[in-house]
Write a structure and sequence with these properties.
single chain; 250 residues; alpha/beta; Rossmann fold; seven-stranded parallel sheet; 7 helices; 7 strands; globular
Length: 250
């Protein structure tokens, strides 16, 4: 039985852990060849060894515009095409705005905004090409945002800024490319059980954990939603998916 993504090529950023790794597995299970992009080569190589489809390990720091563009071009050279981009790499450094380390703000902008844009800029022409000339006659750009891209909250000012930006950019590109059959979808997960929380400063981590005494989503839950979106028929575009843990109130 043919798998829905057989013959397609995908690129996933932030693929060394969490949502990115789970998404790479989910797309491979549907038949896609997957380019795995992240900084941690050893993790990518372990993931590639697990894949049920062809995988390409591309070590890159997406905050470097040259490395980001090169990763996209190497994926296209390796697979001959690019049908799906999951622009997922991101970091979450929470805490009060007053007295926050400026380096944390700069780091979030570098990864969540600049890195996101560098990859998108390099990939969009290839997605347009795949939609025009590929066998499916459709391509997918999946932007991983957050509930923090819909509603700002205390202690997350710059993280919210970055994720609101992801949503705004994606909405604009969707309008621009809808008639060319490049589907643009924004995924907005709530609390997910990933290593993002381990990056918080100790005091902030303790405070955040106290507010999240709930059963969090697993990365596979978000990956399942992404796989569903990109396997729909050409006529269907799911432009936005807000996915919260059942117990999460906001």
């Amino acid at each position: 039985m043919a798998r829905p993504l057989e013959g397609t090529a995908a690129l996933v950023t932030g693929a060394s852990s969490g949502i990115g790794a789970a998404t790479a597995r989910a797309l491979a299970a549907q038949g896609a060849a997957v380019a795995l992009v992240a900084r941690r080569r050893e993790r990518l190589e372990r993931l590639a060894a697990e894949m049920k489809s062809r995988a390409l390990v591309l070590q890159a720091d997406v905050t470097d515009r040259t490395q980001a563009a090169d990763a996209v071009e190497r994926a296209v050279a390796g697979f001959g095409r690019l049908d799906i981009l999951v622009d997922n790499a991101g970091i979450m450094l929470l805490g009060p705005a007053v007295g926050a380390p400026l380096e944390e703000w700069e780091q979030m902008v570098a990864v969540n905004v600049n890195g996101f844009l560098y990859v998108a800029h390099a990939a969009l022409p290839h997605l347009v090409e795949a939609a025009q000339r590929g066998p499916r006659q459709v391509a997918d750009f999946v932007a991983v945002s957050s509930v923090a891209g819909r509603k700002a909250g205390a202690g997350a000012a710059v993280y919210c800024l970055t994720k609101f930006g992801v949503r705004a950019f994606s909405d604009s590109v969707r309008e621009e490319l809808a008639s060319r059959h490049v589907r643009v979808s924004v995924i907005e997960p709530g609390a997910v059980n990933t290593e993002l929380f381990t990056h918080l400063r100790p005091g902030v981590r303790t405070q955040t954990a106290a507010h999240l005494q709930i059963e969090r989503l697993e990365p596979e839950d978000v990956a399942d939603a992404i796989a569903y979106i990109v396997t729909r028929a050409r006529r269907i575009a799911l432009n936005e998916a807000l996915i919260r843990p059942a117990e999460q109130e906001r």
